[in-house]
Amino acid sequence: MELYKDILCTLLQSNTVEVRFPDLALSTDYFGTVCYRTLQKIKAVIEDNTLDDPECFEKIEEIMQIFEEISGKLPHRHDFG
After folding, report:
1. Rounded distance, CA 69 to CA 46, Å?
2. What is the pTM of this model?
3. What integer pLDDT is reported at residue 35 of this predicted model?
């Protein structure tokens, strides 16, 4: 089976691969809107001065959750609980 993978990898590396989604309509307006709303949420978390130092971890956790809302599970995430 390993030989098949090696052969397939070599074949794919030496050819052009094209992925198409003909019915997918991407709009830069959509990405801009999502990014702006995400930054607004992050800014609100960071500017919350009602939290003291032990709650800094919770701020970071909340920011991570905001990113997960828009893009799913984040790689290399540290769970300290």
Report:
1. 17
2. 0.47
3. 85
Dihedral (Cα; 80, 34, 45, 81), 10-degree rounding: -10
Cβ proximity of 67 and 74 under 8 Å: yes
Tell me the pLDDT tens digit for each residue of 15-61.
Answer: 888 888 888 877 778 888 888 888 888 888 877 778 777 777 788 78
d(CA 39, CA 60): 14
Q: What is d(CA 35, CA 63) in angstroms, rounded to the nearest whole number?
A: 13
Q: Where are the domains of the chain?
A: 23-81
Interacting residues of 63 by C-beta distance below 8 A, sequence separation 6+: 42, 45, 46
Q: Give dist(CA 62, CA 58) in Å, integer.
A: 6
Under DSSP, the state recorded for 73 is S
Tell me, rounded to whole angstroms, the distance of Cα 56 from its chain centroid: 22
